[in-house]
């Protein structure tokens, strides 16, 4: 049963990653924690590895359509190397419940920002 759940999570996350450009944190972490019962830190660490094939294939496909800014991706990728080191140190130092609440706050802030931007853009569009 667990292998089936993992395969379903991976397939659904892959579709959503290709469709929306979202990665492990948004999709894999909640699924791994809620469906498989992993701790928050184990879900986060597992998602970092699990996202590699998704990111590689998604990037390859988007690159074929000319949608990838290689310069921006290189700068973001290089800068994230130091950032992820600091993030892992912080995650290891925080209690599980604090880490889970911070992750939830990140998801809520992201959702609020997307809703605000969508509402703002739709207000500027002329009515049909």
* pLDDT < 50 stretches: none
Contiguous helical run count: 5
Our Rg estimate from Cα atoms comes to: 17 Å
Oligomer: single chain
How far apart the termini lie comes to 50 Å
Total strand segments? 0
Listing every helix as H and every strand as E from the N terminus to the C terminus, the arrangement reads HHHHH
Strand content: under 5%
Task: State the helical fraction.
Answer: over 70%
How many domains, in number, for the residues?
1
**Based on helices, strands and strand pairing, what is the structural class?**
mainly alpha
Mean pLDDT: 87
Bulk shape = globular
Major sheet summary line: none
List the helices and strands and how they pair.
Blueprint: H1 2-20, H2 24-34, H3 40-64, H4 70-93, H5 96-124
Helix pairs in contact: 1-2, 1-3, 2-3
Task: Note down, in words, how this protein is organized.
With 128 residues, this protein is mainly alpha-helical. The chain is built from five helices and no strands. It is 84% helix and 0% strand. The longest helix is centred in the C-terminal third of the chain and has 29 residues, at 96-124.
Question: What can be said about this structure in brief?
Answer:
With 128 residues, the chain is mostly helical. It has helices at 2-20, 24-34, 40-64, 70-93, 96-124. It has one domain (2-124).
């Amino acid at each position: 049963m667990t292998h089936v759940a993992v395969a379903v999570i991976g397939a659904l996350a892959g579709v959503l990653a290709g469709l929306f450009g979202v990665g492990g944190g948004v999709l894999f972490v909640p699924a791994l924690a809620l469906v498989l019962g992993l701790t928050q830190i184990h879900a986060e660490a597992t998602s970092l590895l699990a996202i590699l094939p998704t990111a590689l294939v998604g990037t390859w496909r988007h690159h074929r359509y000319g949608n990838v800014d290689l310069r921006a991706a290189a700068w973001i990728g290089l800068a994230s190397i130091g950032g992820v080191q600091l993030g892992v140190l912080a995650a290891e130092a925080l209690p599980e419940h604090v880490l889970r609440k911070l992750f939830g706050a990140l998801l809520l802030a992201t959702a609020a920002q997307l809703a605000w931007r969508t509402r703002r853009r739709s207000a500027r569009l002329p009515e049909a």
